[in-house]
Amino acid sequence: MIRRRRVLGYITKGEEPDWKILVSKHKEDATAKLQVPGGTIEKDELIIDALYREIEEETGIERKDLELKGKVNKTNYFPKHKDRVYERTVFHLAYIGEDRDAWEYQVEGKGKDAGLTLCHQFVPVDELPELAENQDQAIQLLI
After folding, report:
1. What is the DSSP string of 3-30?
2. Residue 85 CB contacts under 8 Å (≥ 6 apart), including other chains
3. Rounded CA gap, 72 and 93, in Å?
4. Does the reported pTM lie above 0.90?
5. Is CB count within 10 Å lower at the N or C end of the chain?
6. Is the Cβ–Cβ distance between 25 and 118 less than 8 Å?
7. What percentage of the chain reaches a pLDDT higher than 90?
8. Of 135, 107, 133, nearest to 120 (Cα)?
């Protein structure tokens, strides 16, 4: 079985318990589920560097606009019909940048999503729908 190391970022804004969390959706694919920023940790890359790189590539949010709150969870995800496991480390970050609720961003980098346009929005944590690939499994650990 192939093991892939990944990071996910739960990016919130506002004050607890009224947090909003950043989610994204592929603009060109109406069937795509919502997701949070994240991706694969590259060979010899520090996990924290991978987290910030993935967030910036997918959202345009720079490291200076985020405050790391801590590690939320580390878990394994076994996608159906694939002979692999995703070892996921989930982090909580607070968005402290320019106030905005929704925007579009073209994904940068070299991954499979490069060039795609993602629609980003902050939604209330308590109204969060099911996320793609069980990315919401650690949400309850924020609350």
Report:
1. EEEEEEEEEEES-TTS-EEEEEEESS-T
2. 1, 2, 3, 4, 76, 77, 78
3. 10
4. yes
5. N
6. yes
7. 82
8. 107
